[in-house]
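Weekly structure sync, notes
Attendees: PL, DS, HV (note-taker this week)

Item 1: non-specific serine/threonine protein kinase
DS walked through the input record. Source organism listed as Cuscuta campestris. Sequence as pasted into the shared doc:
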Amino acid sequence: MGICFSTKKGGGSHNNNPSATNAAVNVRKATSKPPSATRATSRKQEVSHVFQFHHRTSNNKGHVYQQPPRNSSSRRQKSGVIPYGKRTNFGYDKNFDKRYALGKLLGHGQFGYTYVATDRSTGDRVAVKKIEKNKMILPIAVEDVKREVKILKALTGHENVVHFHNAFEDENYVYIAMELCEGGELLDRILAKKDSRYSEKDAAIVVRQMLKVAAKCHLHGMVHRDMKPENFLFKSTKQDSPLKATDFGLSDFIRPGKKFQDIVGSAYYVAPEVLKRRSGPESDVWSIGVITYILLCGRRPFWDKTEDGIFKEVLRNKPDFRHKPWPSISTGAKDFVKKLLVKDPLARLTAAQALSHPWVREGGSATDIPLDISVLANMRQFVKYSRLKQIALRALATTLDQEELAVLKDQFEAIDVDKNGVITLEEMRQALAKDIPWKMKDSRVLEILQAIDSNTDGLVDFEEFVAATLHVNQMEEHNSEKWHQRSQTAFEKFDVDRDGFITPQELQMHTGLKGSINPLLEEADIDRDGKISLSEFRKLLRNASMDSSRSYSVRHRHYH
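Item 1 (cont.): predicted structure, written out as tokens:
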């Protein structure tokens, strides 16, 4: 039951111009009737936005629908129908009419209407979504409203999210009062540009704002799940107006345990792992990568006349960077887009990492970069690693140059609040607490710090931090040649005689450990020849990255 601030035009175009993106509608196979996708404005009325109510129902041609998880497609429908006329008490404020006066109708959908409303005490104008309780036939409709209100509450106050004022109800309706944005959709501004293209500078400004929204969502334990130009509004018609994320109707909370198994979103922006039914926060970054591609060249990276064809393109093919205008676009911009459109979600940049990329960061500062959920996950996972795996990662960390360390440097500085060059226990506790789905006890935080603190001084310096937070999958995916060089250099720190193997004696010499070294060696010694080869060493490092990814790329539906 998402809210889309929209001035959409009729869809159905079979060309690769982004204007055809307006055909994509979010729906779920969970209710009895298809959505009403009423368009109440024309191109000339962009200034006033329309809300489209996306209930999750049909699979109309040209639309992307949500397929429910396998083996559970009927689970929610079997939960029972809310009897006609029955009213649900949402627990919201009951004084809507005293607080607001409804004005101009902006649009309507399957479940209700959206109006401009005026605050009776201040005269401020807001947008109000008025949802008819009687039309919430199934429990899922009630869940959708409750979840969306909870998400809006959690994100309100962020400069790039539409501000949530309050939720109200009476006997017949639920009212959701939000910030009124009158600058039109991002899609409309793209179409207004010559060749539907943004300049690199302007594109970077737009993309930076979208990434901030994604990073904020992910730290709050949620995934937007439908990032697209139609779901971003400008606050005003000014060229420098801030961008606001809207329509959290497909958004959902994430918790450690499992990934999303349903297919949701809009065809042109859906990530490969969504189609494979194993998706998480990384899918938002993919969608932003698609939007960035469109902003820079005016075309979609994956296109076909049918949804199935689009899905095949997404799963099998790479975007085109050879044809105009890509040869004239900067290397930095192309590098940025490529790192967001990596098909392996474990090797894709996170939202916070993308904000550290030189192309999108230009004009920004390190203070603008939020904490990265994958960095926090890596720190939590590091304590679980074997001694050998920790030692190997520390060796790899010492081989990286300043350019490779730039992203982690931003993250280190974000955690090092007092800027004294080390992370204290309290700073570690504060950082880990920002990953909201995880509720960490102080004893657990101390355990993590002690595992990372290799010199046992009670503090974490930058080198120790890098060892615990490296993204090995990304290193290998983004530059395999450099990965092979770095991993070999790390290997040679142990392989003193350069015979191509790490022996028990060399490992003992490097670690200074007393007693038998064999138990330590066994984890990496796959062929059981009593020593570690370069390929076994690399596998040890890769497995570390896979372990950490499993600790945060997990999803759990949460509606309360």
